Amino acid sequence: MTERRKWKAEEKLAIIKEIKENGKVVEICRKYSVDLGMYYKWKESYDTFGLDGLKPHSRRMEPGVRKLMKENEKLKTLLAEKELENAMLSESIKKKMVRR
Predict the structure, then answer these.
(1) Which among 46, 25, 22 is positioned nearest to 35, based on CA atoms?
(2) Angle subtended at Cα 57 by Cα 54 and Cα 59, rounded to the nearest 5 degrees
(3) 69 inside domain
(4) Rounded to whole angstroms, how far apart are CA atoms 48 and 45?
(5) What is the pTM of this model?
(6) Whole-angstrom Cα distance, residue 15 to residue 27?
(7) Helix (H/G/I), strand (E/B), else coil: 8
(8) Domain that includes residue 25, residue range
């Protein structure tokens, strides 16, 4: 398996500017062996955050954040189950009312 290429912010910016000037996204992405999806992520990040958006960021989470995320997912699941249960009870009540 080949190693993944790491692009510098300046290289990403040069590709974005070249595409902006020429308007030929597919051709230029092929020229530099950049996936179209990756280019559009770079462009969106650049449009939103400027040059800082193209710089690499650390993806490490704070120690307690992962635990909070898991707890949040668990609570969302429980809430969804309760909402479904309420909807089913409400439907059964409506059906009983129609029968009478």
Answers:
(1) 25
(2) 140
(3) yes
(4) 5
(5) 0.55
(6) 11
(7) coil
(8) 9-54
